[in-house]
Protein backbone atom coordinates (compact mmCIF):
# COMPACT_ATOMS: atom_id res chain seq x y z
CA UNK A 1 0.00 0.00 0.00
CA UNK A 2 1.07 3.49 -0.75
CA UNK A 3 0.82 6.64 1.35
CA UNK A 4 -2.59 7.54 -0.15
CA UNK A 5 -4.11 4.20 0.91
CA UNK A 6 -2.52 4.47 4.38
CA UNK A 7 -4.00 7.95 4.80
CA UNK A 8 -7.44 6.75 3.69
CA UNK A 9 -7.34 3.86 6.17
CA UNK A 10 -6.16 6.19 8.94
CA UNK A 11 -8.98 8.63 8.09
CA UNK A 12 -11.46 5.78 8.16
CA UNK A 13 -10.11 4.77 11.56
CA UNK A 14 -10.73 8.29 12.83
CA UNK A 15 -14.30 8.11 11.60
CA UNK A 16 -14.80 4.80 13.42
CA UNK A 17 -13.37 6.33 16.61
CA UNK A 18 -15.57 9.43 16.26
CA UNK A 19 -18.69 7.31 15.70
CA UNK A 20 -17.78 5.10 18.64
CA UNK A 21 -17.30 8.11 20.92
CA UNK A 22 -20.58 9.63 19.73
CA UNK A 23 -22.35 6.33 20.36
CA UNK A 24 -20.86 6.13 23.85
CA UNK A 25 -21.87 9.72 24.63
CA UNK A 26 -25.44 9.14 23.40
CA UNK A 27 -25.76 5.92 25.40
CA UNK A 28 -24.54 7.63 28.57
CA UNK A 29 -26.93 10.54 27.99
CA UNK A 30 -29.83 8.17 27.29
CA UNK A 31 -29.11 6.23 30.50
CA UNK A 32 -28.89 9.43 32.54
CA UNK A 33 -32.21 10.66 31.12
CA UNK A 34 -33.80 7.25 31.72
CA UNK A 35 -32.77 7.54 35.38
CA UNK A 36 -34.27 11.04 35.52
CA UNK A 37 -37.52 9.83 33.95
CA UNK A 38 -37.77 6.85 36.31
CA UNK A 39 -37.08 9.14 39.28
CA UNK A 40 -40.05 11.17 38.09
CA UNK A 41 -42.28 8.12 37.79
CA UNK A 42 -41.37 6.99 41.30
CA UNK A 43 -41.83 10.51 42.68
CA UNK A 44 -45.23 10.76 40.94
CA UNK A 45 -46.26 7.44 42.50
CA UNK A 46 -45.17 8.67 45.94
CA UNK A 47 -47.05 11.96 45.60
CA UNK A 48 -50.21 10.68 43.95
CA UNK A 49 -50.62 7.25 45.60
CA UNK A 50 -48.96 7.84 48.99
CA UNK A 51 -51.34 10.13 50.89
CA UNK A 52 -53.65 7.99 53.00
CA UNK A 53 -51.40 4.95 52.57
CA UNK A 54 -48.52 5.97 54.81
CA UNK A 55 -49.67 3.39 57.37
CA UNK A 56 -49.11 0.49 54.95
CA UNK A 57 -46.39 -1.92 56.02
CA UNK A 58 -42.96 -1.31 54.47
CA UNK A 59 -43.82 0.89 51.48
CA UNK A 60 -46.08 3.14 53.53
CA UNK A 61 -43.68 3.54 56.41
CA UNK A 62 -40.46 3.64 54.39
CA UNK A 63 -41.56 5.47 51.22
CA UNK A 64 -44.94 7.22 51.49
CA UNK A 65 -44.63 8.64 55.03
CA UNK A 66 -41.21 10.27 54.47
CA UNK A 67 -42.46 11.71 51.17
CA UNK A 68 -45.50 13.24 52.86
CA UNK A 69 -43.22 14.75 55.51
CA UNK A 70 -41.06 16.08 52.69
CA UNK A 71 -43.92 18.23 51.40
CA UNK A 72 -44.54 19.61 54.89
CA UNK A 73 -40.85 20.03 55.73
CA UNK A 74 -38.84 19.88 52.47
CA UNK A 75 -35.47 19.81 54.21
CA UNK A 76 -36.31 17.10 56.78
CA UNK A 77 -34.65 14.33 54.76
CA UNK A 78 -31.53 16.44 54.26
CA UNK A 79 -30.91 16.33 58.01
CA UNK A 80 -30.54 12.54 57.86
CA UNK A 81 -27.16 10.98 57.19
CA UNK A 82 -26.02 10.00 53.70
CA UNK A 83 -26.99 6.31 54.07
CA UNK A 84 -30.37 7.07 55.66
CA UNK A 85 -31.12 9.57 52.89
CA UNK A 86 -30.30 7.18 50.05
CA UNK A 87 -30.75 3.52 51.01
CA UNK A 88 -34.37 3.24 49.83
CA UNK A 89 -33.39 4.64 46.44
CA UNK A 90 -30.56 2.13 46.19
CA UNK A 91 -32.96 -0.66 47.18
CA UNK A 92 -35.07 0.20 44.12
CA UNK A 93 -32.19 0.90 41.71
CA UNK A 94 -30.14 -2.26 42.40
CA UNK A 95 -32.78 -4.81 41.33
CA UNK A 96 -33.81 -2.68 38.34
CA UNK A 97 -30.20 -2.42 37.19
CA UNK A 98 -29.71 -6.16 37.68
CA UNK A 99 -32.83 -6.87 35.63
CA UNK A 100 -31.62 -4.60 32.81
CA UNK A 101 -28.18 -6.20 32.86
CA UNK A 102 -29.74 -9.67 32.76
CA UNK A 103 -32.12 -8.72 29.91
CA UNK A 104 -29.73 -6.69 27.75
CA UNK A 105 -26.21 -7.44 28.93
CA UNK A 106 -23.68 -4.82 29.96
CA UNK A 107 -24.09 -1.55 28.06
CA UNK A 108 -23.03 2.00 28.91
CA UNK A 109 -26.64 3.23 29.01
CA UNK A 110 -27.49 0.71 31.73
CA UNK A 111 -24.53 1.75 33.86
CA UNK A 112 -25.38 5.45 33.37
CA UNK A 113 -29.00 4.77 34.34
CA UNK A 114 -27.87 2.86 37.42
CA UNK A 115 -25.45 5.63 38.43
CA UNK A 116 -28.08 8.31 37.86
CA UNK A 117 -30.70 6.35 39.74
CA UNK A 118 -28.37 5.73 42.65
CA UNK A 119 -27.47 9.43 42.79
CA UNK A 120 -31.00 10.81 42.30
CA UNK A 121 -32.01 11.29 45.91
CA UNK A 122 -28.66 12.79 46.85
CA UNK A 123 -28.97 15.22 43.93
CA UNK A 124 -32.48 15.95 45.25
CA UNK A 125 -30.98 16.70 48.68
CA UNK A 126 -28.45 19.07 47.09
CA UNK A 127 -31.32 20.90 45.40
CA UNK A 128 -32.82 21.50 48.86
CA UNK A 129 -29.68 22.25 50.84
CA UNK A 130 -26.90 23.87 48.90
CA UNK A 131 -24.46 23.35 51.76
CA UNK A 132 -24.60 19.58 51.17
CA UNK A 133 -23.52 19.90 47.54
CA UNK A 134 -19.80 19.67 46.80
CA UNK A 135 -18.33 22.49 44.72
CA UNK A 136 -18.27 20.47 41.50
CA UNK A 137 -22.01 19.77 41.89
CA UNK A 138 -22.92 23.45 41.63
CA UNK A 139 -21.25 23.55 38.21
CA UNK A 140 -23.36 20.56 37.11
CA UNK A 141 -26.48 22.20 38.61
CA UNK A 142 -25.89 25.37 36.57
CA UNK A 143 -25.61 23.24 33.42
CA UNK A 144 -28.81 21.36 34.31
CA UNK A 145 -26.95 18.04 34.25
CA UNK A 146 -28.08 17.59 37.85
CA UNK A 147 -31.10 19.34 39.26
CA UNK A 148 -30.72 22.91 40.44
CA UNK A 149 -32.48 24.38 43.48
CA UNK A 150 -34.43 26.85 41.32
CA UNK A 151 -35.67 24.12 39.01
CA UNK A 152 -36.73 21.80 41.83
CA UNK A 153 -38.54 24.60 43.67
CA UNK A 154 -41.21 24.46 40.95
CA UNK A 155 -42.32 21.07 42.29
CA UNK A 156 -42.76 22.41 45.81
CA UNK A 157 -45.68 24.67 44.91
CA UNK A 158 -48.98 23.15 46.08
CA UNK A 159 -50.71 21.05 44.87
CA UNK A 160 -47.38 19.39 43.85
CA UNK A 161 -48.65 18.19 40.46
CA UNK A 162 -45.65 18.89 38.23
CA UNK A 163 -41.88 18.63 37.89
CA UNK A 164 -41.54 15.17 39.43
CA UNK A 165 -38.14 14.25 37.90
CA UNK A 166 -35.36 14.90 40.41
CA UNK A 167 -32.09 14.16 38.61
CA UNK A 168 -31.77 16.84 35.90
CA UNK A 169 -33.35 20.11 34.80
CA UNK A 170 -34.02 18.72 31.33
CA UNK A 171 -37.07 16.43 31.34
CA UNK A 172 -39.52 18.29 33.59
CA UNK A 173 -40.17 21.19 31.18
CA UNK A 174 -41.01 18.75 28.38
CA UNK A 175 -43.14 16.45 30.55
CA UNK A 176 -44.99 19.39 32.12
CA UNK A 177 -45.57 21.14 28.80
CA UNK A 178 -47.03 17.96 27.26
CA UNK A 179 -49.12 17.34 30.41
CA UNK A 180 -47.55 13.89 30.64
CA UNK A 181 -48.42 13.35 34.31
CA UNK A 182 -52.05 14.41 33.84
CA UNK A 183 -52.36 12.05 30.89
CA UNK A 184 -50.77 9.24 32.89
CA UNK A 185 -53.32 9.78 35.66
CA UNK A 186 -56.14 9.19 33.17
CA UNK A 187 -54.89 5.61 32.84
CA UNK A 188 -55.23 4.97 36.58
CA UNK A 189 -58.55 4.41 38.39
CA UNK A 190 -59.42 7.66 40.15
CA UNK A 191 -59.93 5.88 43.47
CA UNK A 192 -56.22 4.97 43.48
CA UNK A 193 -55.07 8.58 43.44
CA UNK A 194 -54.72 10.80 46.49
Protein described:
With 194 residues, the protein is mostly helical. 68% of the residues lie in helices and 0% in strands. It has 8 helices and no strands. Helix 1 packs across helix 4 and helix 3 packs antiparallel against helix 4 (108-128).
Task: Describe what is shown at a glance.
This protein has 194 residues and is mostly helical. Helix content is 68%, strand content 0%.
Which keywords apply here?
194 residues, 8 helices, 0% strand
Helicity, as a percent range: 55-70%
Which structural class best describes the helix and strand composition?
A: mainly alpha
Distance between the termini: 73 Å
Strand content is: under 5%
Spans where pLDDT lies below 50 across 5 or more residues: none
Provide the gyration radius in Å: 20 Å
Describe the sheet with the most strands.
Answer: none
The helix/strand order is HHHHHHHH
